[in-house]
Each structure stands twice: as C-alpha cells, then as structure tokens.
C-alpha cells in the first residue's frame, strides 16, 4: 500500500495566516522521511511531527476534516525548517529542481518572499496510507 502526502502552503500577512496553495507532491519517500519521519525514521526528520497548527487556515482545515480519521503524522514546518529541507534537497537530488515539487511562493523563488508583505510562511501537511 502506498503513502500519500497532503500539503498546504500558508503565508502570514498583517498578522494573519492565509492559504496560498496546494503543492502537487508525488510519492517521494525520502522526502516524507525528511518532513516527518514517514516511511523511515523520525530521527531523520527536520522535526518530529507536531500536529496541525491551532491557527491553520479554513481551507487547510476543511481539506483535513474530509477524511481526518484516515490521516497520520500531521505536522507543519516554518520558514527556517523549510530552508533545511531545501538544503537537504540540493544535496540528495542535485539534478531535480525543488520548485518543481513544491511550486513557487512568490515571484521566481522562495527567496523573493523577503520583497513582499508576507511576514512568514509554513507548510502544513499530513499523510495517508
């Protein structure tokens, strides 16, 4: 049985988290392990799963609540943790463009976020089998 990820990108503007998008991520078990220890060891994850943020956006929670009984390893990564994933990705998959997996946040890349009104960014995600 395969494992899938459901991820939402949220951005903070004027002190409020807002839904930005839903990356279309294929089954990448190396990535799942890095994000939450799924299909591998939690010791290799950026951080152990920490549940959904209490202040998740309506869109994220709406998606989660559709089949929440079937989901596991709910978590989220903040901007600094996302940077760690990017660094890891560049080492493990040097020939794969990471924006092709997660999409862009602003402009031509995640670094461009500094030039916008976005105060923070996070990935909120969970898995099913």
List descriptors.
single chain, 129 residues, 4 helices
General description of the model:
This protein is α+β, with helices and mostly antiparallel strands and 129 residues long. The protein has one domain (4-128). The chain has helices at 29-36, 58-66, 79-92, 99-102; strands at residues 4-13, 16-21, 71-78, 120-128. Strand 1 (4-13) and strand 2 form a beta hairpin. The model has no long low-confidence stretch (mean pLDDT 88).
What strand order characterises the main sheet?
A: 2-1-4-3
Question: What overall form do the CA principal axes indicate?
Answer: globular
> SSE order, as H and E?
EEHHEHHE
DSSP helical segment count: 4
What proportion of the residues is helical, as a percent range? 25-40%
Determine the N-to-C terminus distance.
Answer: 6 Å
Quantity of strands, as a count: 4
Q: Count up the domains.
A: 1
Radius of gyration, in angstroms, nearest whole number: 14 Å
Provide the residue-averaged pLDDT: 88
The unreliable regions are none
Beta strand %: 25-35%
Q: Which structural class do you get from the secondary structure elements? A: alpha+beta
Most strands sheet: 4 strands, antiparallel
């Amino acid at each position: 049985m395969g494992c899938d990820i459901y991820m939402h990108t949220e951005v903070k503007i004027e002190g409020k988290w807002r839904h930005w998008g839903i990356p279309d991520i294929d089954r990448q078990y190396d990535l799942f392990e890095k994000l939450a220890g799924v299909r591998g060891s939690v010791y290799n994850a950026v951080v152990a799963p920490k549940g959904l943020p209490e202040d998740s956006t309506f869109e994220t929670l709406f998606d989660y609540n559709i089949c929440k009984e079937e989901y596991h390893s709910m978590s989220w990564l903040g901007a600094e943790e996302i940077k760690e994933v990017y660094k890891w990705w560049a080492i493990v998959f040097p020939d794969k463009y990471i924006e092709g997996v997660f999409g862009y946040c602003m402009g031509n890349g995640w670094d461009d976020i500094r030039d916008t009104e976005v105060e923070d960014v996070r990935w909120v995600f969970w898995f099913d089998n």
